Amino acid sequence: DARVTQTPRHKVTEMGQEVTMRCQPILGHNTVFWYRQTMMQGLELLAYFRNRAPLDDSGMPKDRFSAEMPDATLATLKIQPSEPRDSAVYFCASGGAGESDTQYFGPGTRLTVL
Amino acid sequence: GDSVTQMEGPVTLSEEAFLTINCTYTATGYPSLFWYVQYPGEGLQLLLKATKADDKGSNKGFEATYRKETTSFHLEKGSVQVSDSAVYFCALKVPPGNTDKLIFGTGTRLQVFP
Fold it and tell me: Is the backbone of residue A11 left (phi > 0), alpha (psi -120 to 50) or beta?
């Protein structure tokens, strides 16, 4: 049963610290999405990649957030420096070339910045 | 621009009641339409989808029909269970183009009581 995996599942850190979240997309999927979910803003698309190339990162605060795909099996989202307003659940999702309509979500990383 | 509007929640029902969650959309062209469900503590997962007008998507007793004339994709279930308690997201994918993005609604929380 292929799944998207995310690590860590929970992260508590102090303001100003660097945070790195990792995602392993489903093998063979060529699109990867990063979302942020909060009670106030709901689900927001931060960035997405196709074939490891960033296609859209317009939803991401550029001054502190960065997203990369070092290889086809790993996507990273980094926040430096972190701020309390970054507290949220961050989801990674991947999609396959054969069924590009469907996105498969990981379980999320719950980030708390104190 | 393209958008999805869902009814406000929470929707509170007794077990075995009939469920409708309204969803309307605005889009250029002919989008594909989706319902995703998020159970507590989990990521979103695809519930059903429809790719053209008059198509009916169905899964786990849930149904939704793509109505082009009313630009709607309402989710229905004849008899809800406590295990259906979750947040439901309506989404659309813009017509064929160089994007894989989904546009999500704000989500509707369903609470089913025994």
Answer: beta
Q: Which of A73, A85, A79 has its CA nearest to residue A21?
A: A79
Structure tokens at A34: 């990063």
For residue B106, how many C-alpha atoms fall within 13 Å in the half-sphere facing its CB?
10
Given a contact cutoff of 8 angstroms between Cβ atoms, the answer to whether A92 and A31 are in contact is no
CB contact under 8 A, B99 and A56: yes
Q: Report the SS3 class of residue B83.
A: helix
A vs B, Cβ pairs < 8 A, gives 47
Q: Do A105 and B44 touch (CB under 8 A)?
A: yes
Q: Which residues of B83-100 are buried (b: 16+ CB within 10 A; e: fewer)?
A: ebbbbbbbbbbbeeeeeb
Per-residue pLDDT of chain B (114 residues; tens, 9 = 90+): 889 999 888 999 999 999 999 999 998 878 899 999 999 989 999 999 998 899 999 999 999 999 999 999 999 999 999 999 999 999 998 766 656 788 899 999 999 999
